[in-house]
Design goal:
Blueprint: H1 14-27, H2 32-43, E1 50-54, H3 62-68, E2 72-77, H4 80-89, E3 94-97, E4 109-115, H5 123-136, E5 137-148, E6 167-175, E7 178-185, H6 187-196, E8 199-209, E9 220-229
Parallel strand pairs: 1-2, 1-4, 2-3, 4-5
Antiparallel strand pairs: 5-9, 6-7, 8-9
Helix pairs in contact: 1-4
């Protein structure tokens, strides 16, 4: 779970994030498709892999799964409250408070994950992130993105799309009882974006997840992407 609204002041009340994290984990505990794609991704990486988790949120399920597999994880999240939760959930991992757009790594990574954590970036910021992911990964490194395809979301209307039809923005979305405005690429748009950044998409999956009604979340038409950085760019 990534904390939303990066342009807004971050709530520093740790109890607030603890309560929200527990509600999120309860709502998404049976997110089987998400768990399966993370395991598939991990099986494509060496057991010694160092993986960057961009937006680990509570640390579950992604950072925890990485650590439980014996691989190493470093997480970056702009919310101090979420970083605190991640450190508690995944004591063998390392986590730091930083906006992913401003992160400067001190090493190269075998893998990187952005799991449901980049919806509130603009198209330009997502373009920037695609090149950052490429620069942070070793040649042949693997990127996992968990997102939604814009064309699968009824909330994405014609007026939300850019002129090229590859990306939609300001899509109203319900999450944990609140409304947010999201950016989503189409599936074809993700392919164009990642290929321009030096990636080849090697696997995709689609899945539908619906949280319990009490969670106040819109149904999620998941689109999972595993992309490989070219051996030389």
């Amino acid at each position: 779970m990534e904390s939303y609204q990066p342009s807004q002041p971050i709530n520093s009340d740790e109890q607030y994030w603890t309560d929200l994290g527990l509600k999120y984990e309860a709502a998404y505990a049976k997110d089987i498709g998400h768990h399966k794609i993370v395991q598939k991704y991990l099986n494509m990486l060496p057991t010694s892999a160092l993986i960057l988790d961009c937006g680990p949120g509570t640390g579950k399920p992604v950072a925890a799964a990485i650590a439980e597999s014996g691989r190493r994880v470093h997480g970056i999240d702009m919310s101090p409250g979420m970083v605190s939760l991640s450190r508690k959930a995944v004591p063998s991992g390392t986590f730091e408070v930083v906006n992913m757009l401003e992160y400067t790594p001190t090493t190269s990574y075998d893998g990187a994950v952005a799991s449901l954590s980049v919806f509130e970036l603009s198209r330009q910021e997502l373009t920037t992130m695609s090149h950052k992911w490429s620069s942070w990964l070793k040649p042949g490194g693997l990127l996992l993105i968990a997102t939604f395809g814009a064309e699968d979301c009824a909330q994405a209307k014609a007026e939300n799309y850019d002129a090229d039809g590859e990306c939609a923005s300001k899509i109203e979305w319900g999450f944990m009882g609140q409304k947010f405005f999201l950016t989503m690429f189409t599936k074809a748009g993700w392919k164009v974006l990642l290929e321009k950044a030096g990636f080849e998409i090697v696997h995709t999956e689609e899945d539908q997840f619906t949280a319990p009604a009490a969670a106040g979340c819109d149904p999620e038409p998941r689109y999972y992407i595993i992309a490989k950085k070219a051996s030389s760019t």
